[in-house]
């Protein structure tokens, strides 16, 4: 086999902007995570024993029981059409995977339009072998920890092997809300576009410009496939984070995808619609990152929330009580924008005087936020930094209050009392800057931002203190996730042997 193509894409956390981001008038504060999905595409160079055997694509997700999907590909040069047929799944004791099937079908069809039949057939050779793997964080690891007699703590999570086997079928796994399907579709579509030479390798190089055309094409195609597979057009912040990394996201007008959303084969050619040169793609991605020497902490709260029903109810209430809702949307939007600008201001302060900033982070990590402004005699350059950290805390609390108000008015438990209790306990610990319920809220998860000073004994780290709150919490079943903010931005190419555990997964036939 020739060298495999590997592309990874990160998961996401919507720190602020839930529900508002569905409306193009508002934006969302999106953080991409260090936890990633990986797609490895290998070309099958060897001809099948039967010379007339059709081109076959095999897709495997070895973390799951019976997760092998086989497809045959027919490329019709006359019709400019590619047909990707799943094999009868019963024969392989696997159920269909709509997300994978649509990603293959639409990416191959786009490739035929973009590079022509001959080039596509060359790249497909005698077939493709595709392996998909998601970092452990995308799926609840409670059972794996329990099986090893380990507690649900961050140090215990670090002892699990990478891409740990879940021991269940894909349909039965407990997801953690990091956006597995968006990261999966993004890594699969991007790896295929690269492998089939539709986009150049530079598009996904770790240092490529975020707005590179190849990356934008991959974004548009991944949004399309994800909407089609989910059967709805959401805001798309998850796919955008998977491509472009942490950002302030403003959605695209769903009208761009309307001509392609009907069931069955697309009625129109794909390329003119998904091409980045189509001005109807009016999403906006502004740069964003969390401040230096802070750490994003995430926990999966084992209760489960029906996000689509939350969205339906909130939007229904917004229509019915539009005056009150619009006032709430505007107030929340002002808070969200001020929060994102305040977080960005901290990065600026670090760039201006990293010594003062580092001292402040170390100092704040020993104090509860109520004490941050209570001490006189602090040098002015440090006091200025403390004030911005304190503003960040106040803003996260104000956003939470508004999200609770939204939930009460719409009759949806966006930050239910059990989560309020847990979050209050966490944000009152020393060194905790703020937190909230990510995305649509509910009982699923919490996020926190904590000071992360360097050269601190582990027991003095705010993350350790939060970990203790989580492991002792009895009101809800709280299980930490290992993810932090992605240092590597959005989608990127990887060397197979540099991702621990990935080669072994690919080689295990
Ligand atoms: N490892 C995987 N291999 C193959 N397909 C996967 C894998 N993980 C997820 N999928 C696909 O994604 C689908 C789940 O998508 P869904 O939109 O329900 O999840 P999600 O909202 O992204 O979940 P979460 O945000 O909690 O991670 C699965 O049914 C499957 O088709
Ligand atoms: C409610 C909503 O704004 C965010 C949902 O986020 P999450 O899937 O709960 O992380 C929906 C959307 O943006 O598509």
From TrEMBL:
InterPro entries: Erg8, GHMP_kinase_C_dom, Phosphomevalonate_kinase, Ribosomal_Su5_D2-typ_SF, Ribsml_uS5_D2-typ_fold_subgr. Residues 398-449 form the GHMP kinase C-terminal domain. Its EC number is 2.7.4.2. One of its GO terms (molecular function) is phosphomevalonate kinase activity. It catalyses: (R)-5-phosphomevalonate + ATP = (R)-5-diphosphomevalonate + ADP. Keywords: ATP-binding, Kinase, Lipid biosynthesis, Lipid metabolism, Nucleotide-binding, Steroid biosynthesis, Steroid metabolism, Transferase. GO terms for cellular component: peroxisome. The keyword Kinase applies. It is an enzyme of class 2 (transferase). GO terms for biological process: ergosterol biosynthetic process; farnesyl diphosphate biosynthetic process, mevalonate pathway; isopentenyl diphosphate biosynthetic process, mevalonate pathway. It comes from the Eukaryota. Pathway: Isoprenoid biosynthesis; isopentenyl diphosphate biosynthesis via mevalonate pathway; isopentenyl diphosphate from (R)-mevalonate: step 2/3. PANTHER family: PHOSPHOMEVALONATE KINASE, PTHR31814. Belongs to the GHMP kinase family. Mevalonate kinase subfamily. This is Phosphomevalonate kinase. It comes from Obba rivulosa.
């Amino acid at each position: 086999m020739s060298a495999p193509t590997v592309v990874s894409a990160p998961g996401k956390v919507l720190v602020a902007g839930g529900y508002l981001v569905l409306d193009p008038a508002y934006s969302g504060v999106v953080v991409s995570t260090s936890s990633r999905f990986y797609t490895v595409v290998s070309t099958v160079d060897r001809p099948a024993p039967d010379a007339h055997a059709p081109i076959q694509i095999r897709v495997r997700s070895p973390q799951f029981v019976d997760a092998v999907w086989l497809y045959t590909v027919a490329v019709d040069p006359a019709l400019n059409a590619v047909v990707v047929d799943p094999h009868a799944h019963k024969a392989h004791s696997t159920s269909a995977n709509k997300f994978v099937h649509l990603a293959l079908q639409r990416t191959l069809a786009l490739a035929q339009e973009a590079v022509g039949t001959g080039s596509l057939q060359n790249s497909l050779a005698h077939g493709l072998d595709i392996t998909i793997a998601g970092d452990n964080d995308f799926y609840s690891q409670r059972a794996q920890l329990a099986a090893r007699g380990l507690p649900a703590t961050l140090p215990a999570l670090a002892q699990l092997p990478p891409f740990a086997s879940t021991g269940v079928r894909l349909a039965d796994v407990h997801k953690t809300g990091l956006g597995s399907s968006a990261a999966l579709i993004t890594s699969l579509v991007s790896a295929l576009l690269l492998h089939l030479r539709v986009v150049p390798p530079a598009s996904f190089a770790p240092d490529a410009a975020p707005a590179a055309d190849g990356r934008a094409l991959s974004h548009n195609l991944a949004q399309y496939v994800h909407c089609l597979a989910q059967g709805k057009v959401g805001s798309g912040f998850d796919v955008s984070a998977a491509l472009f990394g942490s950002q302030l996201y403003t959605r695209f007008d769903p009208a761009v995808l309307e001509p392609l959303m009907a069931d069955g084969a697309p009625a129109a050619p794909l390329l003119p619609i998904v091409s980045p040169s189509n001005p109807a793609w009016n999403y906006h991605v502004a740069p964003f990152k969390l401040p230096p020497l802070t750490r994003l902490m995430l926990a999966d709260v084992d209760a489960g929330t029906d996000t689509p029903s939350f969205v339906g109810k909130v939007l229904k209430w917004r229509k019915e009580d539009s005056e009150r809702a619009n006032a709430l949307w505007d107030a929340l939007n002002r808070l969200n924008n001020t929060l994102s600008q305040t977080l960005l201001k901290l990065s600026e302060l670090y760039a201006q005087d990293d010594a003062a900033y580092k001292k402040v982070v170390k100092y704040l990590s020993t104090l509860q936020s109520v004490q941050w402004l209570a001490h006189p005699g602090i040098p002015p350059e440090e006091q200025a930094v403390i004030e911005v950290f304190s503003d960040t805390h106040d803003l996260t609390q104000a956003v939470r209050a508004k999200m609770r108000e939204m939930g009460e008015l719409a009759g949806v438990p966006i930050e239910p009392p059990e989560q309020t209790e847990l979050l209050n306990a966490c944000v009152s610990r020393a060194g905790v800057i703020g937190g909230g319920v990510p995305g649509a809220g509910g009982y699923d998860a919490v996020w926190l931002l904590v000071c992360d000073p360097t050269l601190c004994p582990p027991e003095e780290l705010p993350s350790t203190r939060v970990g203790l709150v989580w492991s002792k919490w009895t009101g809800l079943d709280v299980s930490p996730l290992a993810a932090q903010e992605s240092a590597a931005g959005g989608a990127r190419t990887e060397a197979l042997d540099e991702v621990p555990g990935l080669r072994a997964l690919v080689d295990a036939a």
